[in-house]
Amino acid sequence: MIRTNSEYSGALRRLLQDRDVIAAQRAQLEGLGLSPEEVACALEPAISFHQQLKEEVETYESMKRGDTGVIENLNHIGRILIGLRIAADMSQAELARRLEVSESVISRDERNEYQGISVERAQRIVDALRGRLRLQVEPEDRAVERFDAPVAAGARR
């Protein structure tokens, strides 16, 4: 996961380099007379890594726009906290200053995606980022019958 502007810049550079390297490798393999299937097989790991990096860049850009997404499990709250910091265009150093901790603490916590964070600490981070969380809990079985239909005149509920 990309967490900082410098990581983002580096990822963009790597995407361009990877694209050029993959194109050069493809030309070299084709020049050796390999079949299209053999070329595809040989390039599969590089293309897979390139695609993964591209998805990370897209996720960072989405977070930068403020789209932190929805989590289905509180074990993933760390991604939302990181996304909220990115959307606020706040550095790890600034968040550390606001929380009165060292930058290395924030860096480590984000690297671990705030694994095991307490509710109180998560709220302190949200407050420091001037953010807002909304928790929506739904029953697992959504087939529960609902009684939201309008009541006929004179009928009692």
Descriptive overview:
This protein is mostly helical and 157 residues long. It folds into two domains: 1-65; 71-134, 434 Repressor (Amino-terminal Domain) (Orthogonal Bundle). Helices cover 60% and strands 0% of the residues. It has six helices and no strands. Helix 1 (5-31) packs antiparallel against helix 2 (36-64) and helix 4 packs across helix 5. The chain is elongated and about 60 Å long. The N and C termini lie far apart (52 Å). Residues 146-157 have low confidence and may be disordered.
Q: Uncertain runs with pLDDT below 50, 5 residues or more?
A: 146-157
Distance between the termini: 52 Å
Q: Percent of residues in beta strands?
A: under 5%
Shape: elongated
Number of E-state strands: 0
> Quaternary arrangement of the chains shown?
single chain
Mean pLDDT score, rounded? 88
Largest sheet: none
Q: Helix share of residues?
A: 55-70%
| Integer count of domains | 2
